[in-house]
Amino acid sequence: MSHEYDPDETQLVQVGAQFAELARVLQAGSGPQVDPERLVQVALKALPHADHCSVTVLRPQRPPSTIAATGDVPRRVDDLQYTLGEGPCLDAAVDDHATLATDLRSETRWPSFARRCVAETGVHGILGLRLVLGGADHAALNLYSCEAGRLDAQDVAVASIFAPFAALAVESILRQQDVTNLRDALTSSRQIGTAVGIIMSRELLSAEDAFAVLRRTSQELNRKLRDIAVEVAMTGAVPRGPRADDPADGAPEDGAC
């Protein structure tokens, strides 16, 4: 005799499948990097009452950012919160309890955000859960509904089970970003050091003055300091912009027709 699942059991089976998929991504180890866009897609499938999903990250001395979203709508909702400095995803990132707003039209916790969110994005319900990360980083999993009253206690329960898995994925993403940024910084530092040495040798300048030449050139040409350093290392010379008295490209010189 076959067993008939009731709706709750069916959802739990679906959630289990989503967790298994996420676990496979996390267990990849040194293999492919965790795809943040895949993470939010998995979360969205696990919560059928949600229409959109995103992940907000708060890092020290940096503005809030959305590292992944299922589309343009959740990014607009997130950006609105960042601009106003209020909203459920910002609260959820640092709060141990789930942040649930079932109907933003009657919401009083974030009056400016709630009013504009409904009017500008059509999102009426929001569920945010903290993703516990290491160090001073904070994050939130954000679920958005275009219909008031859809997100409920069951969604909170399922999302709460999902959150630790999502936190592991986000932690992995941030650590990968940190490694990449550090590698880029070290590469840039070596390139700049090489360029400074070349300028010191050619122009008989101190290290401080040689670096000032690089920085001034970067500002005058409106190019990144690293790019200027790479060109100096490749050519042995500091790039020059057009002189003020040079004729513009393609413009006739004095006396020409």
Describe the structure.
By secondary structure, the protein is α+β, with helices and mostly antiparallel strands. It has two domains: 7-180, Beta-Lactamase, CATH 3.30.450; 184-235, Orthogonal Bundle (Arc Repressor Mutant, subunit A), CATH 1.10.10. The protein contains eight helices and five strands. It has a five-stranded antiparallel sheet, sandwiched between helices. Residues 1-7 and 244-257 have low confidence and may be disordered.
Walk me through the topology.
Elements: H1 7-26, H2 36-46, E1 52-58, E2 65-69, H3 72-84, H4 88-92, E3 99-101, H5 111-121, E4 125-131, E5 138-145, H6 153-203, H7 207-221, H8 225-235
Antiparallel strand pairs: 1-2, 1-5, 3-4, 4-5
